[in-house]
Amino acid sequence: xxxxxxRQLKSLILAMTFVVTTxxxxxxxNGMDLFEETTFLDCSFSDYCQRSYxxxxxxxxxxxxxxxxxxxxxxxxxxxxxxxxxxxLSNCTLMNVSDLFKNTTNLVIxxxxxxxxxxxxxxxxxxLTHLEYLYLPENKTCPGGEAAWSSSGTxxxxxxxxxxxxxxxxxxxxxxxxxxxxxxKCGCLPGHYGYKCLRQGTFPTLTYCLAICIPTVLFSxxxxxxxxxxxxxx
Length: 234
Ligand SMILES: *[C@@H]1O[C@H](CO)[C@@H](O)[C@H](O)[C@H]1NC(C)=O
Ligand SMILES: *[C@@H]1O[C@H](CO)[C@@H](O)[C@H](O)[C@H]1NC(C)=O
Ligand SMILES: *[C@@H]1O[C@H](CO)[C@@H](O)[C@H](O)[C@H]1NC(C)=O
Ligand SMILES: *[C@@H]1O[C@H](CO)[C@@H](O)[C@H](O)[C@H]1NC(C)=O
Ligand SMILES: *[C@@H]1O[C@H](CO)[C@@H](O)[C@H](O)[C@H]1NC(C)=O
Ligand SMILES: *[C@@H]1O[C@H](CO)[C@@H](O)[C@H](O)[C@H]1NC(C)=O
Ligand SMILES: *[C@@H]1O[C@H](CO)[C@@H](O)[C@H](O)[C@H]1NC(C)=O
Ligand SMILES: *[C@@H]1O[C@H](CO)[C@@H](O)[C@H](O)[C@H]1NC(C)=O
What we know:
- By secondary structure, the protein is of the alpha+beta class.
- The chain has two domains: 36-189, no CATH class; 191-224, no CATH class.
- The protein is 32% helix and 20% strand.
- The protein has helices spanning 2-25, 32-40, 57-64, 162-165, 205-233; strands spanning 68-70, 73-77, 82-88, 109-111, 133-135, 149-151, 155-159, 174-180, 183-188, 192-193, 199-200.
- The strands form three sheets. The chain has a seven-stranded mixed β-sheet, with helices on one face.
- It is extended.
- One 2-acetamido-2-deoxy-beta-D-glucopyranose is lined by residues 116, 138-139.
- One 2-acetamido-2-deoxy-beta-D-glucopyranose is lined by residues 167, 169.
C-alpha cells in the first residue's frame, strides 16, 4: 500500500518536473528560437493564401529596412512588440478584404497583386494611415482615388493627408483627422465636445455619475434587500 503510494508520488513529481522544464525551455527542449518564431511571429495572414507564389516587393522592402520577414509578413521587432509593417497577399484568390486590415494599422507596405477578382472600397483600408506602398491587381484604381496618393497606377505610393488636399475645414473648435486613404473626419479639440464641438470642458463624467450611476446603485440595492427579505420570510 505504502509502496504503491510512493510510486504514484514519484511519477507525479517526475511529470511536474517535465512540465516545468518544458515550459521554461519553450518547445520541449528544442530551444527558444522555435518558441519565439511560432508563438510571437505568427503570420496568420498566410492562412488566407494556400499558394506559395509571392511577389518580391514586400520581401525586398523588409530586407532593405533590416526587418524580419516570415512567410508573407514583415515585422518590425521592437522592444515593446513585433509590429506588422509589411504584408504580401499577392496571388491569394482574394475577392474582398473587408475586415482584413482592422488590426494592422501599422502597415507601411501591402501587396494585393494577382488577385483578379478582388473588389474593395476605400473603407476597407480604414485605419491604414501609415501605408506608403500599395500594389494592386491589374486595372484597379487606388483606394480614395488618384488624389489620395502622390503616385498612382498599379502601385499607389506616398499616401497624402486628405485634411490638406481636400481642404477640409472643421468648425472653430474642431480638428481634422486623417483616418485612411482619402478618408478624413472632423473631431473636437481637447476641451471641447458635443454638437459642432460647441460645448466646453471635458465630458462631465462626475456630474453624470452623480446623476445616473449612484441612484442606479441605490435602487438596485434597495430592490435586492427587499427581494431577499421576501425570500427569507417565505
Ligand atoms: C499563382 O500561383 C500559382 C501557383 O500556386 C501559379 O501557377 C500562378 O502562375 C500564380 N499566378 C500568377 C499571376 O503568377
Ligand atoms: C541595414 O543594415 C545594413 C548593414 O548593417 C546597413 O548598412 C544599412 O544602413 C541598414 N539599413 C537601414 C535602413 O537601417
Ligand atoms: C521600427 O520600430 C522602431 C521603434 O519603434 C522605429 O524607430 C523604426 O522607425 C521602425 N522601422 C520601420 C522601418 O518601420
Ligand atoms: C469575401 O471573400 C470570401 C472568400 O475570399 C468569401 O467567402 C466571402 O463571402 C466574401 N465576403 C463578401 C462580403 O463578399
Ligand atoms: C482583431 O483583433 C480582435 C481582438 O484582438 C480579434 O478578435 C479579431 O479576430 C482580429 N481580427 C482580425 C481580422 O484578425
Ligand atoms: C463590387 O462590390 C460592389 C458593391 O459591394 C458591387 O456593386 C460590384 O458589382 C462588385 N464588383 C465585382 C466585380 O464583384
Ligand atoms: C486591363 O485593361 C486593359 C485595357 O483596358 C485590357 O486590355 C486588359 O484585359 C485588362 N486586364 C484585366 C486583368 O482586366
Ligand atoms: C481652402 O478653404 C479656405 C476656406 O474655406 C479657402 O479660403 C481656400 O481658398 C481653400 N483653398 C483651396 C485650395 O481650395
